[in-house]
Amino acid sequence: xxxxxxxxxxxxxxxxxxxRLAYGLAQCxxxxxxxxxxxxxxxxxxxxLKICPDSDxxxxxxxxxxxxxxxxxxxxESTQMLDSLRRFDPDGGETWFRLGDKDxxxxxxxxxxxxxxxxxxxxxxxxSRALGVRHPLLPVTDDEVPTLxxxxxxxxxxxxxxFVRYRWQPNVRALTYDDANHASVTPEVAAAIERADAxxxxxxxxxxxxxxxLAVGDLRERLMRRNVPRIAMTPILGGAAVKGPAAKLxxxxxxxxxxxxxxxxxxxxxxxxxxDTVNPEFSTDLNVLRTDTLMKDDAARVRVxxxxxxxxxxxxxA
Amino acid sequence: xxxxxxxxxxxxxxxxxxxRLAYGLAQCxxxxxxxxxxxxxxxxxxxxLKICPDSDxxxxxxxxxxxxxxxxxxxxESTQMLDSLRRFDPDGGETWFRLGDKDxxxxxxxxxxxxxxxxxxxxxxxxSRALGVRHPLLPVTDDEVPTLxxxxxxxxxxxxxxFVRYRWQPNVRALTYDDANHASVTPEVAAAIERADAxxxxxxxxxxxxxxxLAVGDLRERLMRRNVPRIAMTPILGGAAVKGPAAKLxxxxxxxxxxxxxxxxxxxxxxxxxxDTVNPEFSTDLNVLRTDTLMKDDAARVRVxxxxxxxxxxxxxA
Lengths: 318, 318
Description:
Two copies of one chain form a homodimer.
Chain A: E1 9-13, H1 16-28, E2 34-38, E3 44-46, E4 49-51, H2 53-62, H3 80-88, H4 101-115, H5 120-130, E5 137-139, E6 148-151, E7 155-158, H6 159-165, E8 172-176, H7 178-181, H8 187-194, E9 198-201, H9 206-214, H10 219-224, E10 230-233, E11 236-237, E12 240-241, H11 246-252, H12 259-266, E13 272-276, E14 287-291, H13 298-313
Parallel strand pairs in A: 1-2, 1-9, 2-5, 9-10, 10-13, 13-14
Antiparallel strand pairs in A: 3-4, 6-7, 6-8, 11-12
């Protein structure tokens, strides 16, 4: 990359798709020039453990430890605990969330530190450093801000109940981030926004991963005050989501399943947009980069990250 | 066995040695005629999990799931979680207690139920039934009654810190069961004492496993009121402990390492004593059965249990 030596990027990410762009950017930018802010709206307590699915996905991906098939969890994982737990739980009331044996160490250590009163920001730094992650990985808030999913079939569900237990099959009527509204952005995230030369929203689900971050305290206002490129990458390619419920959810929310609808959902938060060449062009005031955004392997992740950074270097995105 | 059809035994056990006698007796007596009461003085919280080492050892042994080499833990166990946890804990501050992956399911489920306010008695029943244990397994109390070990080297230690972390190497000055004194025997244990035709103390460590039970509330008085055989089996064979710190501890407490010293420690709580033929005979008012007590395999466990029951049937132990 030929960006100036102190050009700094702050990336907002959710789960698997966001983790892949984070991985690509982390290969292009040294730790002092890339800060990754992660959604905590899908964090939850399960079996007495504090679990941060998005944070773990990004952490494991950056550490090179992620399961390459699923895109989440750890490579070479085993499920001895879970298989044993089924003896106590034949109805599956507690075993629906996959907790691998290696993965359990992360949750146990996070829970231990949480119970000692350590901030999630510090816990995440401690865990990710121990696993060899070099770039700062910041939860958007230290507060608990569970996303709630209002469904036709079951009424209001906790996020992971909707997402994992029911495999995002219920029809969504609305999403609420009430706790986020009363939460605070951490000082570390505030500083990462202030020093950013560009703000990037990963191709994560805008409603399930990005909105829960934007709902936190005054985050949106902080972002709007920064006169730097603020760009998002489409999670929709050719009328479908690369992974997960984005397309299904957009339909349920009465939206066309297009990159345009994603860009319009972000609204004036964005100055630029990274669209995929498979999508039809659409009329917009945004500065648009059209490229192949599919990050199917590590090489593609680095290439996509490089494309975005080169575009920013050339004045794109503003 | 030819004991009358409603002859009932209540067995008090600690860890591995006790579990082996429990296993033998459980092969000889149907569930309605054998109740097993287990020590909880070495229970503790670790990594946010409620762990009951003696209870688990007995439960796994009765279920036929115990690791046959160690005598505790589960057969075919793996340690993926623990190996992963070491990345977060290079100094070993949290990884000294071996938590196998399968074993974790037990602790997670117990912790979950504990946090819901379920009594340990009910939790233990639920867990042991799920694993296929047919005989009642009762914690002596639902209260937390941690045994404390006063050592020359480190002062007062939590039991598992002494026993596992420091591998029972510190020199013991005293043992205290203060919380047990303020705890209550459960109604289930009280009933098991009331209906017993014989009360047996397994060849568990009298100071580390049995005394913490006897210290619970009015347990000793309840036992003393029962005019039935009350017998203990020696944990000392030929001047050594079959397993664990009994011999070392007796030396530290200024006692000769003999079955006689064990019998005298129990004092008037006993009416009978099961001694090993390798030990020298000693003068006592107790009714003594001398037999081979070494329970090195399942067959030996059943044989020893049968010897004891036959002796009781013939009027022994009283």
